[in-house]
Amino acid sequence: MKKALKIAEGIYWVGAIDWNIRDFHGYSTYEGSTYNAFLILDEKVALIDTVKRPFLDELLERISSIIDPKKIDLVISNHTEMDHSGALPALLHIIGKKKPVYCSKMGKKNLSLHFQEELNLIEVKDKEEISIGKRRIRFLETRMIHWPDSMFSYLENEHILFSSDAFGQHYASTERFDDQVDKATIMLQAKKYYANIILPYSSLVKTLLEKITKLNIQINMICPDHGILWRTEEGISQILDAYNQWSEQKREKKALVVYDTMWHSTEMMAETIAESIAEEDIEVKVMNLRKWHRSDIMTEMIDAAAVLIGSPTINNGLFPTVSDFLTYMKGLKPKNKIVAAFGSYGWSGEAVKLINKEFEEMKLEVADPGLRIQFVPDKEGLRKCREFGKKIASILLDSV
Ligand code: FEO
């Protein structure tokens, strides 16, 4: 039997562990994930968030290890994306369809659109509080981090921040807390989560962190909707500091060379460019798009100052993996990057121009018009690659 886990007196983790998920709408979740939900026992029994629909039974089993689910008096929906709300209607059918669901204004709209069912949705405002007995819960609107409906719930008495997707990681484990897992592994997964989910809203993250500081609230635990919970002082400050740093997208002395290749010519260019940059004491990562997942490349991109993208020209266009990556990257709106394109071609050679067009749409700083080489790079071609790399290295070093 799957059991609830006590995280504080009267407060339980009752979520689900998804050991097998490997793709989360285009993000590779090779460590699986969890859908965290929390049960608070007071004069009223509150459930914070639910789980993805196929995990309803696991949620019910864990709740049942503590109380009869029908005793839940109210549900708080911090976020309406289906991995947290999918099980909500079925749960309400079991515990009572009229039980109130507290959510933000946009949460109310989204839940109505998702489920087309008459639910007892109660809209709460930023900083509004409810009492559930001895405890008070304060709601903090966190619009667009990362959906319009997103909000945090702060448990005043125990100083626990239920932070929805923010500060989460796609990481399945039997352990629940930051002091029980390898810190480097979990910080990498938190960084990957930021790079692939939160990155487009980085300016709002800055504002949110300032808002939390101004509220001057004590935080003893941060409970995100995915992955492990932050309960150590060191872990809490580490994840808050990391969000501060990632939201700035500060340029480090690091370059990414991302490419695909047909007959290894663009690959020769990529490796030669990378070597010439690395000679300037700059960290360089060379990432072949058929060997690296787009979401791992985005993780590396957060702190890179320069991003070079190479594509062969195929049928007057970009190589399909390069198009895929540029579409994904554009959606995540990286800022503050020096960029340039390169690629080998046979006769028409449009790839560099097409990559530059994408860079311009992303409003990134194009450091060079791009390097094109016909067919296989010869000695002169490789010299041009080194020269190209040195130019990027010099701009990068001036900018960090
Ligand atoms: Fe974990 Fe935005 O859902």
Describe the structure.
The chain has helices at 56-64, 82-85, 88-95, 105-115, 183-198, 202-215, 233-248, 265-278, 294-301, 320-332, 351-361, 379-399, and strands spanning 5-8, 11-13, 16-18, 23-24, 27-28, 33-35, 38-41, 45-48, 74-76, 101-103, 121-123, 129-131, 136-141, 151-155, 160-162, 221-223, 252-259, 283-288, 304-310, 313-314, 317-318, 338-345, 365-366, 371-374. It starts with a strand and ends with a helix. The longest helix has 21 residues, at 379-399. The chain has 400 residues and is α/β, with parallel strands linked by helices. The radius of gyration is 24 Å and the shape is elongated. The model has no long low-confidence stretch (mean pLDDT 97). Bound molecules: MU-OXO-diiron (FEO). MU-OXO-diiron binds at residues 79, 81, 83-84, 146-147, 165, 225-226. MU-OXO-diiron (FEO) is lined by residues 79, 81, 83-84, 146-147, 165, 225-226.
How are the secondary structure elements laid out?
Blueprint (H helix, E strand, L loop, with lengths): L4 E4 L2 E3 L2 E3 L4 E2 L2 E2 L4 E3 L2 E4 L3 E4 L7 H9 L9 E3 L5 H4 L2 H8 L5 E3 L1 H11 L5 E3 L5 E3 L4 E6 L9 E5 L4 E3 L20 H16 L3 H14 L5 E3 L9 H16 L3 E8 L5 H14 L4 E6 L5 H8 L2 E7 L2 E2 L2 E2 L1 H13 L5 E8 L5 H11 L3 E2 L4 E4 L4 H21 L1
Parallel strand pairs: 8-9, 9-10, 10-11, 15-16, 17-18, 17-19, 19-22, 22-23, 22-24
Antiparallel strand pairs: 1-2, 2-7, 3-6, 4-5, 7-8, 12-13, 13-14, 14-15, 20-21
Helix pairs in contact: 5-7, 5-9, 6-7, 8-12
The structure holds MU-OXO-diiron.
The site of MU-OXO-diiron has 9 residues, from α2.
